[in-house]
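Table S2 (text version). Query chain:
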Amino acid sequence: MYQRKWIDILVVGDQIKIPLGDLGTFTATVQKFKDDSLLFLFDDYITKLPMNENGSNKGGYEKSDLKKWIENDLFKMFPKELREHMIDITIPTVGEICGWKDSCVKECVEPDNNEQLLLMKWRSNRIAYYKDEWGWLRNSVKNEFSSSLFAFVDYDGYISFSTALSSRGVRPEFWLVR
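Corresponding structure-token output:
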């Protein structure tokens, strides 16, 4: 007889607690379903780090020091039962958090083609905390505007920009396959 796993009964808005070693224990909320997978987003920033030690946005998030840290160091901090189901771990995009209604953001930021997550339509859900820090998004600023800036979510849940060398909050998102 089939026994349901805990991951099979989760719905959008449900939270799980995740211990991450020395970083502490944090909650993450189910944001959406796709096929047989669930997208989780941490409710708060888990630490603060620069996007790139060299201060550049060259190569975007895909070539960043932060991505390397997330995929190597942070991934290993997750409990084994989650790592076994994890198919992707990253940080959110402008589209997922704020959408693309702001014309300045459309003009300045590299697009991501993601729709705003349902729970992020409420500004209060876009705001996260870590020692009053604001947090990174995956999108870099277009090179014609700057070769060092990335987008981040500021204290009131809107998009702003910061140099890659600045330390900002890290709010991972990850997919778990059922």
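Notes on Table S2: Helices lie at 65-77, 80-83, 94-97, 103-108, 123-126. The beta strands are 15-19, 25-34, 37-42, 47-50, 86-90, 135-140, 149-153, 159-163, 167-170, 173-177.
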